[in-house]
């Protein structure tokens, strides 16, 4: 019951968000999103686009929350499906999932490239070089809270990316370094980092959760053209992305309803699938190989209307899947769809003349012989043009030569999911937004100082330096008597920079000059000579008086000073 209440509450919040933001030119997108929302079963799962995540995940698009990895992968899958229908794009580009970035980052510390590289990087290298793909697109997560889009052009040997917050000074230095190192070892090097030159929209200063929308829009703009998203159209873009993914889910259900030729598979447990991460594993269970049509029909031209028929699965053998290492990249990939080719373009069942296979703009599994070392198939394939086992797409652009898990193991696998996998982060920490607003108000001079917070701030400073001074304004500064210098705080009520300054300042006190100065300060403090020029005096406590709350302690007014310059000169 609690799960039903939580789901109803989240969908209710999405509906309220739609009602609030459907104006300002977004009424058409809002109406279509609301109509599609009524067709979704709240407790179902999204089986389309190479995933099996709860349908509730789509409600993230109908909010101002940060997009999670499932939404990013599904959105890239949808654009990959569209790219397949374009002859030029279908033979020139590759759209990779999030697992590519993680494997590039993992390979950098130990320089695991070339023959020592993992299966993901090896097969990407083989596919790009053998299929002669010229452009590679993939999303990346920076610092765990920011989405950007990367493009590698193998013709011009250029690396570009689209960062919607680059105007605020954010540069993905570590990720760029790791990518260039991979290109240097596996593709001969010579690549130039062009930086943030991929066309993209620009986030507003206080917008810290829409970077995923801007990254997906940048990919769509680069492939198909169209308008770049802005701060005014960002919420409308979220609505259209929700419509795209909801339609893909509904279309998948329609294909399953019309299908009359289901394919049976042997059941593999989650533990068996996890063995695929070990590239040297050979003792895997043998799945039952399904029957595959001998011919592969490919649509001659990008169709305007796509008809769904029982021949949907026959197109799957024209596409090669990705490799086993991407099983763990998404938090909800512990469960897999029980049907094949859920994201591929569907063609008419009328027999047509068999034509030469056209590679899709997606990641291949690579060498089938290499995969057969780890999965003992009943009929191992020796010819890529006529494989005996259809690949199961974990992504629309990546898949496995592993049969999907049937529904019989769904309940068992669900119990093994951790709480962290189920409750994925769907937003930004509230303190981050509050910190940005506080800095902006200090910059604009509109900050309203909270006296209690300021009293606590001064109390913390006085614990380290009883004779500290304060300056309040556009910048908050604290005067340290020992080194006679002012330290600028990061923001109001924050003493972190002052405490860091104390560590470096005290470490310098070992010198003879600083030691004499420290003794002078101690002597003057004991004699009470410094109390006459401290700007803000620390409240004194009588003998036997109980401890009080720092926020309730009175703050004395600034005292007139006349000996400040004299003591400053003496102390250096």
From TrEMBL:
Residues 307-339 have a biased composition (Low complexity). InterPro entries: Papain-like_cys_pep_sf. Residues 286-339, 542-565 are annotated as: Disordered. It comes from the Eukaryota. This is Ubiquitin-like protease family profile domain-containing protein.
């Amino acid at each position: 019951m609690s799960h039903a209440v939580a789901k109803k509450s989240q969908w209710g919040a999405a509906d309220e968000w739609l009602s609030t933001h459907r104006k300002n030119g977004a009424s058409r997108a809002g109406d279509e999103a609301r109509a599609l929302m009524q067709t979704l079963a709240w407790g179902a799962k999204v089986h389309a686009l190479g995933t099996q995540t709860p349908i509730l995940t789509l409600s993230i698009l109908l909010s101002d929350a940060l997009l999670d990895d499932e939404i990013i992968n599904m959105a890239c899958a949808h654009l990959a499906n569209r790219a397949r229908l374009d002859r030029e794009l279908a033979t020139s580009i590759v759209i990779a999932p999030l697992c590519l970035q993680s494997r590039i980052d993992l390979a950098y510390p130990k320089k695991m490239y070339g023959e020592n590289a993992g299966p993901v990087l090896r097969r990407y290298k083989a596919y790009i070089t053998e299929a002669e793909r010229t452009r590679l697109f993939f999303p990346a997560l920076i610092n765990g809270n920011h989405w950007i889009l990367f493009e590698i052009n193998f013709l011009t040997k250029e690396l570009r990316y689209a960062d919607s917050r680059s105007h605020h000074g954010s540069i993905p230095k570590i990720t760029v370094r790791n990518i260039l190192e991979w290109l240097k070892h596996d593709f001969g090097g010579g690549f130039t980092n062009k930086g943030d030159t991929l066309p993209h929209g620009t986030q507003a200063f206080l917008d810290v959760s829409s970077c995923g929308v801007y990254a997906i829009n940048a990919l769509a703009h680069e492939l198909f053209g169209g308008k770049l998203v802005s701060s005014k159209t960002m919420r409308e873009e979220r609505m259209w992305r929700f419509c795209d993914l909801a339609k893909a889910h509904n279309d998948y259900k329609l294909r399953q309803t019309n299908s009359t030729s289901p394919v049976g598979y042997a059941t593999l447990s989650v533990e068996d699938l996890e063995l695929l991460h070990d590239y040297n594993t050979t003792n895997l269970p043998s799945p039952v190989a399904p029957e595959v049509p001998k011919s592969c029909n490919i649509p001659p031209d990008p169709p305007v209307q796509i008809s769904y028929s029982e021949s949907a699965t026959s197109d799957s053998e024209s596409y090669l899947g990705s490799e086993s290492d991407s099983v763990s990249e998404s938090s909800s990939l512990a469960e897999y769809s029980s049907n094949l080719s859920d994201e591929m373009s569907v063609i008419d069942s009328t027999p047509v003349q068999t034509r030469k296979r056209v590679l899709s703009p997606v990641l291949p599994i690579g060498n089938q012989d290499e995969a057969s070392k780890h999965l003992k198939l009943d009929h191992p394939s020796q010819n890529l043009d006529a494989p005996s086992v259809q690949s199961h797409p974990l992504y629309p652009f990546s898949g496995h030569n592993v049969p999907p898990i049937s529904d019989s193991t769904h309940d068992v696998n669900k119990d093994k999911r951790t709480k962290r996998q189920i409750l994925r982060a769907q937003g930004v920490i509230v303190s981050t937004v509050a910190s940005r607003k506080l800095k902006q108000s200090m910059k604009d001079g509109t900050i309203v100082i909270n006296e209690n917070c300021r009293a606590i701030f001064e109390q913390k400073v006085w614990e380290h330096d009883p004779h500290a001074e304060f300056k309040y304004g556009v910048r908050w500064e604290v005067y340290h008597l020992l080194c006679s210098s002012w330290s600028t705080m990061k923001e109001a009520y924050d003493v972190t920079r002052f405490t860091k300054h104390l560590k470096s300042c005290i470490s310098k006190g070992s010198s003879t000059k600083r030691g004499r100065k420290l003794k002078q300060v101690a002597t003057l403090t004991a004699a009470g000579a410094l109390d006459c020029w401290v700007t803000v005096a620390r409240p004194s406590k009588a003998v036997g008086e109980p401890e009080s709350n720092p926020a309730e302690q009175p703050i004395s007014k600034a005292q007139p000073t006349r000996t400040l310059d004299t003591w400053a000169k003496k102390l250096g």
